[in-house]
Design a protein that fits this description.
By secondary structure, the chain is of the alpha+beta class. The protein is built from 27 helices and nine strands. Helix 17 crosses helix 18.
Length: 678
């Protein structure tokens, strides 16, 4: 096949430039990427060899746009790798990631290119640049300095080698985690073992067993829609213990062990930070975060810890009391979710499973669309004309109130063995300049939520609906982006600001005005009754201490791995235990770790940034107070949130954008008020 006919290279024939999933094959990626890199290098050579004075057009703009095709190919590969791929496809990352890393370093470590950008940066005020162009130049200059442009040749070579090695390790970490998750199943033909587990989960387990060629019986997996209900509802304590122990062992030892990968990753990150003149990886990473410094992050986490820990202890004492009535003298980790559900039932007469019939997946999707219509005037229309990468994916055209096209929106909600665990939003194409024209984005959300069974449609738990609202918040950030340059587009903003648009959306789910839009019984069509809504509202801050402490443990573990010199770490589990000891309320499960499956920091972009979930929660609690004071569907405030935050991408410092929206800096105690902890 000639390169011009490669579906990753040729212009998409589909509406809105949608990705040609119907044509793309695994063998297309390497030739397409190599072609795109050569083309980008040709343009960069033109920039370097241009003898004219550097200008925005002949330097910044060319550097911004030279890698458009390469970026599209990379987005397509890594999105498919996460959402729909086998091990052969995943192995391609070992070739693709180093090529991308080398290209990035060839730019940032090139002294000629840096001199051009430096000249432009130092003379910005003499050029007639608008605010966004100045931001692009500033971010480009900062990117060079943070990636080694000021180093000597020997140190530049060290950075190259480190980045190349890191580029292979993160995909391998994710691949190991998925393989380890898929490897374990629990099979039983004894129905008595299933006591307490919700009917829908049992039906799903029966179907899973059939798919695995079992003539009868039930099979549970470590994928969330199977694992979590077992931990919450199984009266069989031995089953909970078995599943909990297996979950804790994911990628800790065995065929898909991640321990050496973790030690290599953190050591290389530290070495790179040191070469670049920073104390450690956290110090380096926080240069492009709202928090700015390690001390600020740790003070923030410790401030929350001082409130969460005593509250969590009190909550656990209540659960222990319940457990003792069942003859459980010493509560263990596999008892926590189970007695949490029992306690919630006792306190609020509220069982999460009561809500499932009102949360049919299709209705929830309609619900998020109605919220977006009420807030921002958006219209969503399903289309069958766009290629998809798996039959379960649905695609929607998104239009403004006036009919203008805004985005394509891909929705992929249920688990597969070919899909990574968790939930995320991504883009197949960022909003911004492409081929000389400002294009609208192609946005996607990917989740692992309860699938349908032969008897029932997909009925979600409240937490799963919350996940959809969360990821839809990210999606709105991407869809509503309104910038010129794709590298500044939403949601590519500072990492501790990126969760604000997602987490704020979760707040709408707790409100009657929102639930009455879409939460209707899948059989009768009855709108969710007021007494159930009241139970949801009353239970919103239930076990807020325990939940908050869990998030803090991840944040503190992340910071422990990325502050100081990690080269002396010999035992991953021992290091982890010491890092989060003060957040642990129950005995540790021997032979388990969090680190070995913590994809956010070792397989994703959250290293020295996991704290940002709580940081952004403080922002979203403050922002939602503003909506609550004036009406949750107040279009004036929604428009301000859209114009000052969602549309702006990384064109301004985040705090400036927040203050323009809110009229003041956020109140950090808003989060603790919402959790009823102060």
């Amino acid at each position: 096949m000639s390169i011009e006919n490669n579906p990753l290279v040729k212009q998409s024939p589909h509406k809105y430039g949608a990705v040609s999933f119907n044509e793309i094959k695994q063998e297309h990626f390497i030739p397409a990427l190599e072609y795109a890199i050569k083309d980008a290098e040709r343009i960069l050579d033109e920039v370097k060899n241009n003898t004219e004075t550097p200008t925005f057009e002949n330097t910044a703009l060319k550097m911004e746009t030279c890698s458009e095709l390469m970026g599209t190919i990379a987005h397509t590969y890594f999105n498919l790798m996460s959402a729909e791929s086998d091990n052969d496809f995943k192995e391609l990352a070992q070739q693709i990631s180093p090529k991308l890393s080398a290209f990035s370093n060839n730019i940032h470590l090139d002294s000629k290119l840096f001199e051009k950008v430096k000249h432009l940066y130092e003379n910005m005020d003499t050029e007639n640049l608008n605010a966004e162009q100045k931001r692009l130049v500033s971010e480009s200059y900062k990117g060079f300095t943070l990636n080694g442009a000021l180093l000597n040749d020997e140190d530049k070579e060290k950075v190259r080698k480190i980045d190349e090695e890191l580029s292979k390790l993160s995909p391998k970490f994710s691949q190991n985690t998925l393989n380890a998750t898929n490897k374990y199943t629990y099979f039983t033909e004894d129905k008595s073992e299933l006591s307490g587990i919700p009917e829908m989960v049992v039906a799903q387990a029966a179907e899973t067993a059939q798919k695995k060629d079992k003539k009868s019986g039930w099979m549970f997996t470590l994928q969330m829609p199977s694992y979590i209900p077992v931990m919450q509802y199984a009266e069989n304590r031995k089953l909970r213990e078995t599943m909990s122990r297996e979950f804790g062992k994911i990628s800790y030892g065995g065929e898909f062990d991640n321990q050496d990968i973790i030690k290599k990753i953190v050591t290389l990150r530290y070495e790179k930070a040191q070469i670049l003149g920073f104390d450690d990886h956290a110090d380096y990473t926080l240069q492009k975060r709202m928090a700015g410094k390690t001390d600020i992050v740790m003070n923030f986490l410790n401030r929350l810890y001082d409130v969460y820990y005593p509250s969590a202890q009190n909550e656990l004492d209540e659960m222990r009391e319940l457990a003792r009535k069942d003859g459980v003298e010493e509560m263990q980790s596999w008892d926590s979710a189970y007695y949490s559900e029992k306690l919630k039932m006792q306190k609020y007469d509220f069982d999460q499973e009561e809500l499932r019939p009102y949360f049919k997946t299709e209705n929830v999707i309609e619900g998020i669309f109605k919220v977006a219509q009420l807030m921002y005037g958006l219209n969503f229309k399903e289309t069958k004309d766009i290629p998809i990468y798996h039959e379960e994916v649905r695609v929607f055209e998104v239009h403004e109130e006036n009919g203008d096209f805004l985005s394509l929106f891909y929705v992929d909600l249920h688990p597969r063995e070919t899909k990574n665990g968790g939930a995320w939003m991504t883009s197949w194409r960022q909003q911004g300049l492409h081929n000389g024209k400002v294009e609208r984005p192609l946005i996607s959300i990917v989740c692992n939520l309860t699938p349908s069974t032969e008897e029932k449609p997909s009925l979600l738990t409240f937490r799963e609906v919350e996940t959809i609202f969360h990821e839809f918040g990210h999606a709105l950030h991407g869809m509503l982006s309104k910038v010129t340059y794709a590298s500044l587009a939403s949601p590519d903003v500072y990492w501790d600001f990126v969760e604000l648009p997602s987490q704020i959306m979760e707040n709408w789910l707790g409100e009657k005005e929102t639930l009455s839009l879409f939460a209707k019984h899948y059989e009768t069509g009855e709108i969710i009754p007021d007494d159930l809504i009241e139970k949801i509202k009353k239970s919103q801050s239930f076990n807020a201490g325990i939940m908050g402490l869990r998030q803090l443990s991840f944040g503190m573990l992340d910071m422990a791995w990325h502050t100081g010199n990690p080269s002396g770490v010999k035992d991953v589990a021992k290091f982890e235990d010491e890092a989060i000891e003060k957040t642990c309320l129950l005995p540790k499960i021997e032979g388990s770790t969090i680190s070995c499956q913590l994809g956010h920091i070792f397989g994703g972009g959250y290293s020295a940034g996991y704290y940002s979930y709580k940081w952004a929660e403080a922002l979203d609690a403050d922002a939602f107070e503003y909506f609550k004071e004036n009406g949750i569907f107040n279009t004036v405030i929604a428009d301000s949130f859209r114009k000052n935050i969602l549309e702006k991408g990384n064109t301004e410092p985040p705090m400036n954008m927040y203050v323009k929206f809110r009229g003041k800096e956020p109140d950090p105690d808003a989060l603790l008020r919402r959790d009823n902890l102060i």
